[in-house]
Structure formats: structure tokens, C-alpha cells
Amino acid sequence: MRKILLASLLIPALALGGAGCSGKKDAGESGTQLGGTVHIDGSSTVFPITEAVGEEFQMLHRGVRVTVGISGTGGGFKKFCSGETDINDASRPIKEKEALLAAEHGIGFIEIPVAFDGISVVVNPANDWVDHLTVAELHQIWMPDSPVKTWRDVRPAWPDREIKLYGPDVDSGTFDYFTETINGESQVSRPDYTASADDNVLVTGVAGDRDALGYFGYAYYAENTDRLKVVPIDGGGGPVTASHTTINNGTYAPLSRPLFLYVSTKGGERPEVREFVKFYLQNAATLAAEVGYVGLPARAYELGWQRFESGKTGSIFNTDKARSGLSIVELLSL
């Protein structure tokens, strides 16, 4: 998915208290060689960033194995909250019931945002009638018991052809975020669509069907611009196309969101996990851009590392403060 040379990762270490990529190969802060395994699962949306970080980290620390699964945000949290993994990739904040499950198993967690994403709504390139969709039209299409069966049901001028819908499965954080944003409640959606935990399956489905409509993380569109047509979304201020610029500046609303790592406090005590988290935050901005996402401000990564170093547990982003319009840097500074 990415074309990147290790040399391009020799970026400043921000204020993370280490040399990042320019540190000694195979050695942690103590100078001893690192070994062991970092177990990661979760979001298929965050997967491309974590996969890229894992590959580069293992080139520096060949004694460490980084495993990255894609059970979806919800499926990953089930494993993480029962102590099966060290880190969960998440495309939404942890839910209260997941935090309670973690507490039941004695799992403390540190919440760290790592990038911005915009959920991309896409159609087949042969679709020459869809110029944009409003949030109200997306709701009409995706709501439970939707009356929409054909494109004409959305707008009378559009063809009387059946819409073929593609989207993430119910364990996906992208599904949670999209349904809450578009339908007003997480997990509330029409069921008659092709669902998959693998975004590449969704890409292939839309790319192969003129009448398809789907949604998934921006990186999967960015990697397949020759096979997909992205649909501008009108959130009330006119149609806006998902792009690095519109996701970063917040104009691609309401389908922009942060992506997260959730790190187990117990796992974080191991040097290989600690070094991996440090490496991730030192290089997330560069690698997120390489795989189609948008990096956070440098200060956000510094504050994320401070949260990890101080062992500050719990969620900021599943609170009323996160819904009050504060920036990521402001939230991390609380």
C-alpha cells in the first residue's frame, strides 16, 4: 500500500524523550537488545498505519515481532479488554461497556490519538449521475427500513436502477461512527448490504459494480482512485470532497474523525511495547500520510507520549468534553 524508504523516517524525535528512528538498532532506552512480541488487533482502518509502523520498527529491532490483526474495532476491543492483546487499533473511542469489561479483567488502558481520517463515500467510476450526496440523503439510504431500493428513490432524475450497497460489518468502528453520525445512533442501519471486515473486499465490490455505493476509511479510497469515484458530501454548508486538506481542516464534516491506539498498561510495562509506542508516535505523522491518512499536530504526539509515560488511563474522547468542540491538543492537555 505504501512506497517508503527507511531513510525518510529520520525525522526529529519531537519531545518524546528519545532518538526514535535514529536510535541504536535493536536497543531500547537501557541499551539492551529488545525481544518479544507486540500483540495488536482491531480496526481495519487503522491497520495500514500500524502495519507500516510495525514493518519499520522490526527493521530497527529485529528481535521483536509485531503482530497486527484486523478483527475490527469492536472485535479488537473484546480481545484487548480480556487481556489477549497489548494494543487495540480503534477508529472510534472506547465504549462505556468496553471500558467496564476491561475493568472487570483488571485491564488499564491509555488512549492515544494517532491520525485523522475521513470516511469516504464512494461509487463506481462509471456512475455519471451522482455529483454529491447530502447527509439527509445518506440517512435516507442507510436508515433501518429504508424505502430506497433504486437510485431514482434518492433523486427522481437519477436512473431507475437498483443500488448495491457495501459497507463495514458490525464490529467495525467505521460502522459505529458512520451509523451514529448519519442515522443518529450507533449500530443502527439497514441490514441488506454487503458487509465485510476487510475494506479491500468493499473496494473490489464497488469497483466491480456500476450501481454500487459504499463507505470506508479514506486511505482505501486514496489507494484506489483509479477504481473508485469519491462522492462529495454536503453536511449543510455545500458539497465537500474528502481530501487530506478537508479532513485536516475540519471542512469535511461530519464524516471526519480521529483514529486511536489503546495501550494496555500491563503491556506498556514491557520494554518492547514501550519502544514500539514511542516509535509509533515519533513517526505516525509521516507514515499516516504515506498510507493515505492525515497526521496530527506535532504537539498532539508529544502530549500522547506524556499520557503514556505518566500512565494516564481512561478515555477523554468518549466524554462530553470531546463533543464540545475542543481540538485534539486541547483535549489531550486536560
Features:
2 domains; D-Maltodextrin-Binding Protein, domain 2; nine-stranded mixed sheet; alpha/beta; three-stranded mixed sheet; 334 residues; elongated
Terminal CA distance: 36 Å
Number of strands: 12
Strand content: 15-25%
Global shape: elongated
The CATH fourth-level homologous superfamily of the largest domain: Periplasmic binding protein-like II
Structure commentary:
The structure is a single chain. The protein folds into two domains: 6-116 and 258-332, 3-Layer(aba) Sandwich (D-Maltodextrin-Binding Protein, domain 2); 118-249, D-Maltodextrin-Binding Protein, domain 2. Helix 1 packs across helix 10 and helix 2 (72-81) packs parallel to helix 3. It has twelve helices and twelve strands. The protein is of the alpha/beta class. 34% of the residues lie in helices and 19% in strands. A hairpin with a 4-residue loop joins strand 10 (233-234) and strand 11 (239-240). The longest helix has 20 residues, at 271-290.
Question: What's the short version?
Answer:
The protein has helices spanning 47-60, 72-81, 96-104, 135-142, 173-183, 199-207, 218-222, 244-249, 265-268, 271-290, 298-310, 328-332, and strands spanning 36-42, 64-68, 87-90, 109-123, 133-134, 164-168, 194-196, 212-217, 229-230, 233-234, 239-240, 256-264. With 334 residues, the chain is an alpha/beta fold.
Write the layout of secondary structure elements.
Elements (H helix, E strand, L loop, with lengths): L35 E7 L4 H14 L3 E5 L3 H10 L5 E4 L5 H9 L4 E15 L9 E2 H8 L21 E5 L4 H11 L10 E3 L2 H9 L4 E6 H5 L6 E2 L2 E2 L4 E2 L3 H6 L6 E9 H4 L2 H20 L7 H13 L17 H5 L2
Helix pairs in contact: 1-10, 2-3, 10-11
